[in-house]
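hiii so um. not sure if this is the right channel but i have a protein structure encoded as tokens and i wanna go backwards to a sequence. like what aa goes where. can anyone help
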């Protein structure tokens, strides 16, 4: 099970280098309305539209993406605004995927 260090974290997602989800927290399933089996293997950009923008994705890979206002796409087509921190992960200097922490908007 994934864990966030901050008790306010309501979603935690990990991906591989192809930006496909490899693991999601139970909170993520609840918030998005999808179960883990559906989400794992799917592109992050399906639920994090900010990653559809090639320039934005390049900026994210360059370093930690600050906690900022982002949009999640929910199963029912609704958009939910959250604050997310998208952190690129590297193994031996090679991009290995993302780790995303999200907290509800206050």
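sure thing!! here u go:
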């Amino acid at each position: 099970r994934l864990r966030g260090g901050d008790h306010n974290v309501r979603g935690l997602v990990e991906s591989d280098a192809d930006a496909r989800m490899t693991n999601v927290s139970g909170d993520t399933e609840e918030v998005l309305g999808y179960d883990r089996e559906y989400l794992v293997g799917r592109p992050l950009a399906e639920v994090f539209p900010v990653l559809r923008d090639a320039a934005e994705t390049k900026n994210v890979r360059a370093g930690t993406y600050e906690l900022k206002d982002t949009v999640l796409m929910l199963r029912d087509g609704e958009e939910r605004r959250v604050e997310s921190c998208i952190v690129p992960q590297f193994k031996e200097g090679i991009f290995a995927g993302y780790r995303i922490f999200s907290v509800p908007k206050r």
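oh and Strands lie at 11-15, 21-24, 65-73, 79-91, 94-104.
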